[in-house]
Amino acid sequence: MALTNLGARAQIGLYFNPIVSRVSNSTADTGPFAFLGSGDKSQIFGGVDFGGYWDFVHYAKADVGFDMRDAIQHGNSASLNSFLVGLHVEAKPMAHQLKPYAQLSFGDGRTRAPVSTVHVNKLEYGVMVGVDRPLNRHVDWRIVEVGYGSVTTISSNTYGGPAVPAAKLLNFSTGFVFRIP
Predict the structure, then answer these.
(1) What are the residue boundaries of the structural domains of the chain, listed by start?
(2) Phi, psi of 2, deg, nearest 5
(3) For the purposes of burial, counting CB atoms within 10 Å of the CB of 100, is it exposed (0-12), middle (13-18) or buried (19 or more)?
(4) Residues linked to residue 131 through DSSP beta bridges, in sequence order
(5) Considering only CA atoms, which of 47, 53, 110 is closest in space to residue 82?
(6) Which of the residue ranges 25-39, 104-118, 136-150, 164-178 would you say has the lowest mean pLDDT?
(7) Assuming Cys at both sites, which of 66, 103, 109, 145 could form a disulfide with 151, CB separation 3.0 to 4.6 Å?
(8) CA 140/CA 126 separation, integer angstroms
(9) How far apart are CA 38 and CA 59, in angstroms?
């Protein structure tokens, strides 16, 4: 009986939004497999972020659930594919005109250098905060989402070159969320 009640109150949101990320390193890679480009410490990547969330626990002040997303981005002829799963917490403010949320996610970061077809998969984490504004019962405008994370990218170190630290990711996204009550 409890599971039936839980399922009836669950809410699902699906999104497909543009994303822009600043990918940076404190040390430049000068080898042939430099993810950001030989001698570069940062690049701007862009692409799409799509996924969904399932809020299955509802409190007076917040909804809690899971978020699963995949962000596919390209920059400087390199590629970054981030598949993340995490905890999604959405606040319920008094006015209900804005719905702030936060989430902590972990998953797989797949990177490919500009001059190679070889991919490397490494652990990635991300912390995201954002604000959605309901437009009607089934559509929210994701005003902004800002994320910070880290992933160890492909580098010349992968093939015996000098060590390069994990890349830092600063993400910005906006778009629409389609809710299924």
Answers:
(1) 18-180
(2) -65, -40
(3) middle
(4) 100, 144
(5) 110
(6) 25-39
(7) 109
(8) 22
(9) 50
Amino acid (1-letter code) at residue 107? G
Largest Cα–Cα separation, the chain: 61
Structure tokens at 29: 């890679």
Distance, C-alpha 50 to centroid of its chain: 9
Q: Which helix (H) or strand (E) holds 121?
A: strand 119-134
Token code pair at residue 110 = 């797949």
Please state which CATH class domain 18-180 belongs to.
mainly beta
**DSSP state letters, 32-81:** TT-TT-TT-SEEEEEEEEEEEEEEEEE-SSEEEEEEEEEEEEEETTEEEE
Residue type, 31: G
Nearest to 88 by CA among 72, 96, 99, 73: 99
Residue with the bigger pLDDT between 96 and 46: it is 46
- Give the separation between CA 51 and CA 14, rounded to whole angstroms: 6
With a CB cutoff of 8 Å and minimum separation 6, the contacts of 36 are: 23, 24, 25, 28, 29, 42, 43, 76, 78, 153, 167
Amino acid 4: pLDDT: 39
Alpha carbon 131 to its chain's center:
15
Could you give the CA distance from residue 101 to residue 57 in angstroms, rounded to a whole number? 14
